[in-house]
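Researcher: I'd like a structural prediction for the single chain below. Treat it as a standalone chain; there are no partners to consider.
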Amino acid sequence: MLKECGIKPSKHRIAIFEYLFNHRVHPTVDIIFKDLFFDIPTLSKTTVYNTLKLFSEHGIIKILNIDENNLRYDADISEHAHFKCDKCKRLIDIPMKNRKFEGLETCGLIISEYQIYCKGICNECQNSNIQ
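Model: Treating it as a single chain, here is the predicted structure.
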């Protein structure tokens, strides 16, 4: 897939790409780095940042600006929203269909990207003693 998108594969890029597709938890750079560093000790955080930026520029991942402290990364580029649990901090994908914004033509706006997310308490936290 990297070659199809015009990205030259390297050991680091392949590892980061595989990580994102095998770990659909919307990881941060720190999580990706920590999880891959043991197997790839030559990996740096700068390489992770640059690789994720490259993947985003080529449209094979989305960068999520949901967390106040960190960007999150999503390998699912289909149309969907996100839910962030206030208790456990997990991000959960929410399916969407036919999302439309009314009146864009009359406002003169052209939207190239949008992100929709909700916050609250997930089912698991509601059913546990975390509250």
